[in-house]
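Team,

Forwarding the record for the chain on the shared tracking sheet. I've put the sequence and predicted structure together so nobody has to dig through attachments.
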Amino acid sequence: MSKNDKRSALIELSKFAKARQMADLEGMSINEILVEEFYTDAENFEFNTFKQWKQKGMNIKKGATAFLVWGSKRKNKEASPEPQTDEEKSFEFFPVCYLFSNNQVQPKNND
């Protein structure tokens, strides 16, 4: 999946998160809703970035596919193709961030 495909998929999922936010989850951010409502299950309940898992002494398992959320808003737009739709424009300053769950890591000594 290309970077643009990942961004498009996250935009689509964020639409559902926004609808949930407006309906009954007003106090939660879009990222919190994505993690709590769409990604969390019995096997995936703790989410961290690659760097955070490394700091906890864990390695990401080979072949693990990251969960996508929005990163912190960029102050300056990076040089990229002009967004095609109004929806894409509303997300253009937010980079895609990658999270991994507890189910996708193993202790460093189990390589």
